[in-house]
Amino acid sequence: MERVGTVVVGAGVVGLAVARALAQAGDPVVVLENEAHFGEHLSSRNSEVIHAGLYYPPGSLKAESCLRGNALLYDYCAARGIDHRRCGKLIVAGANQSDALQRLHDNARAAGAAGLTPISGRQLAREEPWLRGTAALHSAHSGIVDSHGLMAALARDAEDHGALLCPRHRVTHIDCAPGRFDLRVEAGDERFALRTDRLINAAGLGAVPLIERMHGFPDAQRPTQRFAKGNYFRLAGPSPTDRLIYPLPEAHGLGVHLTVDLAGQARFGPDVEWVEHPDYRVDDTRRAAFEIAVRRYWPALPAGALHPDYAGVRPKLMLHGQPHPDFLIQDHRSHGLDGLTNLLGIESPGLTAALALAERVARLSG
Ligand SMILES: Cc1cc2nc3c(=O)[nH]c(=O)nc-3n(C[C@H](O)[C@H](O)[C@H](O)COP(=O)(O)OP(=O)(O)OC[C@H]3O[C@@H](n4cnc5c(N)ncnc54)[C@H](O)[C@@H]3O)c2cc1C
């Protein structure tokens, strides 16, 4: 059986950031990725927004890793020439929502978010006359990033430090013992076994299924997950703004918001659609609901201007039968298996938080 020092399962933005951090610390790292290319799932099916840590409960892993990740990401993009823009974002309150906007502002401050400015209804009407809102909160540190450019840079850094990236390698089974993990891997028609003393499960939507295939993992720590698909519709014609425009957040998402990509194309989404299995088709019948959601803050949205674009799927985590709304990093303290780190429920703001999560994993396993 082949032996390697560290195996990272999954080459999305999180797995690549972890591989980079561990390789830079001098570890021999192998990244096993099921698909032919990195980042084909969550990491390329999102809003590409650099979040500023407004929404998450103070002290939560989401809040801390988002704030830290935001700073690390801007620095990394500047250092590596990754396309990005600190374009800012407006969270807009409709009628009867000023208390909810104030609560969001209070939460953001308590969580440590900076660069926030309240905007009056009058100022909003002056700055963005097409928008309907009674007040808004401006976040100066929100922005957008080229997620593929980011992943390409992380992959290059990892490889430059000796990491081996293996596309089309699917992990199908793991026998676990403290400090020793025997993996079964499928690579096309080939099947082989690999032994490692450190295993990082960064498999995104596949992370919970991977735990199901871990023999020797304690049953009490096995999570389950549900899938909340998020559909996007793109806007035909020019964008009315070059900032990000968000309504107030809803139960399982941030609300159907307007993002502008680095080419200036505007799109709306994601909504929340519970699905049994991940799939990425966008159903045109959702258009009417999108038009209603968008017209709450852009009443003059032209008829027929929205077109189905793409979709992503959020992993919604359950642990001990309860929803677990935060990111979850399981290490030996929870499951007793030295050397195993599971990164679970890494939905939004995982793109923003990736470098901070990698820093944390490197610290945990250092
Ligand atoms: C609709 C939506 C919008 C979002 N918007 C934002 C946003 O604007 N800003 C933000 O910060 N975050 C956002 N996010 C969150 C962000 O996209 C994710 O948190 C992040 O991309 C997670 O990356 P990952 O590496 O964990 O997962 P992935 O990118 O999915 O990577 C996991 C990889 O593991 C591989 N894999 C799975 N199982 C196996 C196996 N058994 N063997 C080998 N390989 C395997 C998969 O093929 C995949 O490539 C959004 C998410 C969604 C769904």
Q: Please, what is the CATH homologous superfamily of the largest domain?
A: FAD/NAD(P)-binding domain
Rg (C-alpha, Å): 21 Å
Highest-level CATH class of the largest domain? Alpha Beta
Helix share of residues? Answer: 25-40%
What is the number of beta strands?
A: 22
The number of domains? 2
Strand content: 25-35%
CATH architectural name of the largest domain: 3-Layer(bba) Sandwich
Shape label: elongated
Amino-to-carboxy terminus distance: 25 Å
Q: Major sheet, described briefly?
A: 9 strands, mixed
State the helix count.
9
CATH fold call of the largest domain: FAD/NAD(P)-binding domain
Structural class: alpha/beta
Quick gist of this model?
This protein is an alpha/beta fold.
Could you describe the 3D structure shown?
The chain has 2 domains: 2-48 and 148-222 and 324-364, FAD/NAD(P)-binding domain, CATH 3.50.50; 87-141 and 225-318, D-Amino Acid Oxidase, Chain A, domain 2. The chain has 9 helices and 22 strands. The strands form 4 sheets. Strands 1, 2, 9, 10, 11, 12, 13, 21 and 22 form a 9-stranded mixed sheet that branches. The protein is elongated and about 70 Å long. It is of the alpha/beta class and 366 residues long. Helix 1 packs parallel to helix 5, helix 1 (13-24) packs parallel to helix 9 and helix 2 crosses helix 9. The structure holds flavin-adenine dinucleotide (FAD). Flavin-adenine dinucleotide is lined by residues 9-15, 32-35, 39-43, 45-49, 51, 170-171, 202-206, 210, 230, 270, 312-314, 346-352.
